[in-house]
Amino acid sequence: MNSIIGTYECKVDAKGRLLLPAPFKKQLAASLQDGFVLKRSVFQPCLELYPMKEWETMMQKINKLNRFVKKNNDFIRRFTAGVKVVDIDALGRLLVPKDLTSFAQINKDVVLSSAVNIIEIWDKDLYEKAIDDSIVDFADLAEEVMGNVNDDDNGIS
What is the distance between the alpha carbons of residues 118 and 45, in angstroms, rounded to a whole number? Predict the structure, then answer.
């Protein structure tokens, strides 16, 4: 799968349904029939929407962990806590289960933001705060994470 691109503001209705923005629906068209996995983020108070093929790739990595190592077993349990298989309905809506809505503190206004091969689903206020909090440190973070990567001869990395 190619990278998913875009950040969009949306609304969740009273039943927890979220209308997927048309650009995301178009980018995910090949994945619509396979379904998706929705889970809690490890590092942020948001949700992660995995196309099923991306989830299966992640599970191949997870399945290589030795379950007789307690830390691995604890990690697997926490990583998969609250995981749900979800579908996009004929109208392009995603039903966000109540337990995941509570975890991500989603009220009405949400932001869907691409994160390479998955989509993060944020409460709008929490997303704005996360972005604002990280602006100051982003230059240092970018240098630390990407500063030594230079795969091409064009000097752009």
Answer: 16
Amino acid identity for residue 76 in this structure: I
Q: What predicted TM-score, i.e. pTM, was given to this entire model?
A: 0.87
Contact 113, 127 (CB under 8 A): yes
Report the chain's terminal Cα–Cα distance, integer Å. Answer: 22
Q: Which helix (H) or strand (E) holds 113?
A: strand 109-115
Helix (H, G, I), strand (E, B) or coil at 14: coil
Sheet bearing 109-115, strands edge to edge: 7-11, 109-115, 118-123, 47-51, 36-40, 84-86
Blockwise average pLDDT, block size 10, the chain, 157 residues = 88 94 92 93 94 96 94 94 93 94 95 96 94 71 75 55
* CA pair distance 97, 87, nearest whole angstrom: 12
* Number of C-beta neighbours around residue 96 at 10 A: 22
Burial class (CB in 10 A: 0-12, 13-18, 19+), 97: middle
